[in-house]
Every structure is written in structure tokens, then in C-alpha cells.
Amino acid sequence: MRKLNRYIISEILGPLGLGFLVYTFILLIRFLFQSAEMIIRRGLPAPIVGRLLLLTLPNIVVLTLPMSLLFGILIAVGRLSSDSELIAMRSSGISLLTLYKPILMLSAFFTLLNTGLMVYALPWGNHALQELRLEVATQSVSQQVQPRVFYEEWEGKVVYVFETPQGEKRWKGVFLAESLPTGQSNQITTADWGEVRVDPTGEKIVLRLYNAIRHKVDLSAPDRYEVSRHKRLDLILDDQFTSGQKAKMEVSKGIRELTIQELRDLREDPTASFEQRNLAEVEIHKKFSIPMACMVFGLFALPLGINNRRGGKASGFALSIGVIVVYYLLLNNGEEAARFGKLPGWLAMWSPNILLAICGVFLLMRRNRDKSLLLSRVDRWIREDVWGGMLRLKGLRQGWRQELRKEQQRRREVKAAARPVRARPRSDLVLLLPRLRLAFPNLLDRYVVRMFSLVFFLVVLSGVSLFIIFDLSETVDEILKNKVPNALVLAYYKYLSLQMFYEIAPIVVLVTTLMTFSLLSRKNEIMACKALGVSLYRLALPALAFALAVTLFCTYLQSEVLPASNEKVAQLKDRIRGNTTVRTYRRADRQWLFGQGRYIYNYLHYDPQQQALQRLQVFDFDADHRLTRRLLTETAQYIGDAWVFSKGWSRSFSGVEVTSYKRIDVPKIVRYPETPSYFDSEIRPPEQMRYGELKDYIEELKESGQAVPELQVQLYNKVAFPVVSFIMALVGLPFAFRLGRQGALYGIGFSVVLGMIFLGIFAFFTKLGEAGALPPAVAVWSPGAVFALLGIYLFLGVRT
Hints:
Helices cover 63% and strands 15% of the residues. It is built from 21 helices and 14 strands. The strands form two sheets. Strands 6, 7, 8, 9, 10, 11, 12, 13 and 14 form a nine-stranded antiparallel sheet that branches. Strands 1-2-3-4-5 form a five-stranded antiparallel sheet, with no helix packed on it. α20 runs antiparallel to α21.
């Protein structure tokens, strides 16, 4: 029996390791996706990202170990069942109960391992992870605020620091304002000195200003203006990453950082709240109930896996996911019930194990007696009533189909009888080929996806490399001229490569589709599939699924990652070009710029054709960084060599005293050193805005009476452009099968030409939309819709 035990354990370990890698990788990727924006905006170095991943591993592994064990047992037992090895064991007198010895031995080992992780590694990992997250989200704030750079990570605020004296942590000369100056109570604050402080819990970020002067004004009624002085002013600010992090840190999260003894002390602490004491008891039982799930899954998986005869890894994966979902739903619902005292903590945490264990024993007893897994009455009801009804319905459908086929055959015979009879050579050789019934995904699908993914990544690597080389050849002179460090250049192309991938994804999918099926044709694999009865439509399904995955990934990039990475690209590009203009990069409707030594500009929108600024504010500072003048105008247009302001006001200050106030009711000429070229941004602001931000900005511009067809095109393009990758797969498939054995290089050339045609049409329609000749939605979606219909039409014409 020892040899049999080793054999069964070896059969389980392979899929167990595979499942562990897959489950852990999926959860790690999920963590990276959730943290992508914070990593990019904070500019976290690779060691910090590595520490985040390492510290989150205990929290992931304690969940993936039971899942992997269940997956491994289901796959192993299913393989033994499908290969009739279980039948051979039963015929040799080996009971199914005998198989439990190696399974329970392995389950006991993972139970002890998971218990150690839950009791020792998990509290340490959670505590260290929270400390690192708070350090990244809060303690780095003071390092993020740099002199002569607009800082926008505080919700609704923008801060500008004039200088930081050497050897001091305080800032000299601070300007704080609302990011989007609107509302009836608009205010700005200036201060001689300032510093940022974070409380030990990381819950509050306090901006402490010394000798601060606060200005309040109603923009709709500028006559009402308030100025106040504060010797020391503390402002509590909301950092977008800190507030998001604190929102995730619920009470239960803090509980999971405690050891067993600390949980016991909390449970017995009379000063703690009722909810905290309940959670402490829940967490104590959870540290042992989740590891015990390994034993329960081992008991449950054997009879369940025997029923998994032909499912393979896909069915085992799906079945394990289903059991895991049921288990953790019961566990989470029990935790919520125990949290509010509706259930005892021990019952809430152990009831999922008890229920699954009872089900496992019941299923094993029925399986060991060669009975159905269900009770006789339930099984009879399913077989006779449900399944029988489905078969009767299927019989009716088959009868109708047979009658239809007979009628079609009769018509073909009539047509054949009307045609002259031709002598046909007789053949004595009859080749019978099996008809394959293919599920998705099967071995053929995985083979196509593997080849498709390999070609895809090679094409991506080639395309991004070409883009980088091309861009580097244009910027190398500026890099050498401004003595840009290598680290800055690498960071620039690291973030730019994300935008490059997003832009070339449609062409990459098209090239990959043509190359993949061209390679399959050259190896006669497509002909072999057709000979075995596999339709080309079915063969193209994995390629379409891969293209859909690329579309979803590009959608995620556009909505979550690219706004942050494009902001970094704009900042780094300004530094590479030696541009000393200090500006904000977050959104087009929150433009803050620092002028030549003493001015801070804020405007809503800049029209390069009219050379006009909408709702311009100018703040004038003296040599000591104190505000001396403030000006606001609804419209500022550059005419000749000066700005013409209309409908606004200006105020001059001496400390807290308003020395002058003037209304601008008629156009007035005002001279500033900054010309329109200073406001003409070289970046593309819509690319740095999420869909909702751009939509809100468009609505605001519409309310101000401005036509925004260009921005509307950009808005629809955020959704339409990722879909182009899937459309390119539809377009490429018919040509890929028609090219046949022409070769991969022929496919590349053809795909480039086809891609250029599509992009040319796409650009033409986009320009029509921006010019107002077409509705923006029609302009953006019509090229893709036309090409998709064309691809489907051509594909339906391919002989499959």
C-alpha cells in the first residue's frame, strides 16, 4: 500500500502546484491592478513594489493553499477515474476508503502549514503591510511636495511652494488654493512658512502654515471680499491615496494584525466595544477553521472528483472554484453575523467546515456503494422528470429536424434527377475520419492561444522597441543638450511604453492574427483541422477570445493607468526638453502655471486659434513671496502685443489690507510677459483624464457656452479605440485564411497596408467629428462598425 500512497500523492502534487501558482498569480495580479495608480503617481521604486508583493503573500497564500489542495485532488482523482484506474483498484478489492489515507496525510500536512501561516506569518505580514502602505501613502507626502512644482494629490487642493531652505524641512513661501475655483466661497491662502505633518495613525494629514493670510471671495459677487491673518493655521487635508487606504482599513483589518494572545486580551477587555470583542473571538476561531478547510476539502474532494470523468483540468478548475466560492460565502456571511452578535463566533467560523464535512461523508458513502451522489428520490426526479422532459423536448426537435432533412434530401434528389447522369469513376478506397466534438477551451484551443500569445508578445516587443528607437532619435539632441540623467530617460520611456502599447494594440492584433494562421497554414495544420471536421469558425474562436482579452486590458489601461502614466510622461518630457515652465499636469480644466518669477496663472480653457483664455486668474507676488495683487477676468484675448481683459476685477494688497479695488466692465489692455505660446500646452490633456473627469469637463464647458466637438470625440474615443483591437481580429481572420501558405512576411506586409487603410479612415472620420461635420459618436464608431461588418461578411464567405 505504501507504493499506492506514493503514487496517489505524486498524482496530486502536480496539479496542486499548478493550481497554487495560478491562484496566487491571479490574486497578485489583482493586487497590482488595484495598486497601479498609487505605484505610478507615487513613483514607487522596484524594491518598494517588491516589498508590497512580498508582504501581501501571507494574506494570499492562506487562501490559495486550500484552493490548490482541492484543485489537485479533483484533477488527480478525475484522471484516475477517466483512465479506469479506480475501477482496477475496486476490482482488486481496494476500497475507496483506502484512498483516503494518502489524501488525508497530505491534507493534514497542509493544515499544519496553513495553521502556522495563520497564527504567526499572517499577523506579522498584515501589520508590516499596513505600515508600509501608510508609509507610502502618508510619510512620503512631505517628500512629494517639491519647491516650484504644483502638488495636486490633496483632494480639491493645489499647493505651490516657492523654496525650501537648505537643511530645513519647512517650506518658505506657500500658496494654497482650490484646484477648480468655483462656488460662492472661493478661497486661497498664502503663508510665509509651511510644513506637512501626519499623525502616527496615518488618518490625518495636517498642513501647518505660519503667518498665513486667507482670502475669501464670492466669484459671482466680487464686491464681498474677506481677508484674515493667522499666526498659525492648521488645515486637515484629504490625500486621495491616504483616504482610499484608510477606507479599506476597516475594524476587521486591524484585528487581523493581532496575535492569538492579543486577540484573547481584546476579547476579555471590558473597555472594548461589543463589535471588537466579537471580531476578536471570530478571528481566533478563523485562524484554525480556515486551515482545517484543507482536511475538509480532502474529505469532500474524493467522491466529487470521481464524478469528474472527462472534464480535464478545466472542469476541475471550475469545480474547485465553485466549492471555494460556496465555502467563503458561508464563511463571510457567518463572520458578518457573528460581528453583530447574531451567531456565536465558533459556530460562524466552523459551520462551513461542518457542513462540507457532512456532505463529504455522505457523498463518500454513496460513492463507495456505487450509488448516485444524490438521494434516490431526488435522483429519480432529476432523471425522469427534468432530464426526461429535456430528452422528450430534444426528441421533438430531432424529429422536426429529421423531417426537414428528409424534405431537403427529396428536393436534392428531384434536382439531381433533372440533371443528365454522368459516369463517375468508382473508387474502392473509403477514408473514414472521426468527427470531433470540441469543447472550449480544449487542447486545440490552448495550442492556438499559445502560438497566438507567443507571436503577440514578439510583435509587441518589436513594435514598442521601434517606437522607442524612433522617439529616441528625435529627442537625443535635447537629452545631450540638457544633460538629462539616464535614470530620467529610462523612467520616461517606462511610462511612455504603456501609451505606445495602447496605440499599437490594434495593429499588433491584426499582425498577430495574420502571422499565426499563416504559420498554421504553412505547417498544413489548418488543412488537418478541416480534414478532421473542425470548422474554421471554431478554429478562430481562441484568437477572438485573445483579442477580446486585449480589448479589456486596453480598456483598463485607458481608464485606470494611462491618466497617471501620461501625467508622468508630460512631467518628464518637460524636464528632458529643459522646459522651466512650472505647470500642472492633472487636468485641462485645472491649469495652474507659474510665470516669470512672480506670477501664478489659473485658467479654465485655452483656445489656441483665438489665442484666448477663459476665466483667467493672475496672482502677483513680491520678492518675499507675499501676494500683492489678484486679478480675475472672464475672457482674456491676446491682440497685438498685449492681453485684452473683459468683465472682471482686480485687487491690490498690503498684508491684510486691500489698497485698491477696480471693476473691469469694458475691455482693458493689460501687459504681462507671458505670451500665448506660454499657455499653448504641448501635452494632450484629455489623455490624462479619466472618462468621468473628461465628461464633467465637457459639461462644464458646455454650460459656459463653448462648443467642444474635439473633446467629445476624445471622450467617445476612450471607449471606441480599445474595441478596435477586437475589430482588427475580425478583419484579419478572413484574410489570414485566404492568404494560406503565402508566408508570415507576406502577412506582415498585408496587415500593415490594411492597418494603414483603417487608421487613415479612422483619422478622417475623427477630423470630421472634430470639425462638427458629423456627430462625435458617429464619427468615432462608424469606421469600426463598417470594418467589423466587412470582416464578418468576408469571413462568412471563407470555405470552412
